[in-house]
Write a structure and sequence with these properties.
Layout (H helix, E strand, L loop, with lengths): L13 H40 L17
Length: 70
């Protein structure tokens, strides 16, 4: 059935456009991967700092509390 039909015209620069699009997709994928690793590294650094600094612990008092009941 399809053997008798003429082939559709193909643009002469189709291969060059496909190659350019593939390069762009690969560059975007590489950029997203690098940004993801950077974000993961920053998250690990933030969690490490939080665990080491313990900001939830109140600072030590600089004076002694008043003595009552003597």
């Amino acid at each position: 059935m399809l053997a008798g039909l003429p082939l559709p015209p193909v643009p002469p620069d189709l291969a060059a456009r496909a190659l350019a699009r593939g390069r762009r997709l690969r560059a975007h994928r590489r950029l997203r991967r690098r940004l993801g690793w950077l974000l993961a590294l920053l998250a690990v650094a933030a969690l490490t700092w939080t665990a080491a600094a313990q900001p939830w612990v109140p600072p030590p008092s600089r004076t002694t509390p008043p003595v009552e009941g003597w």
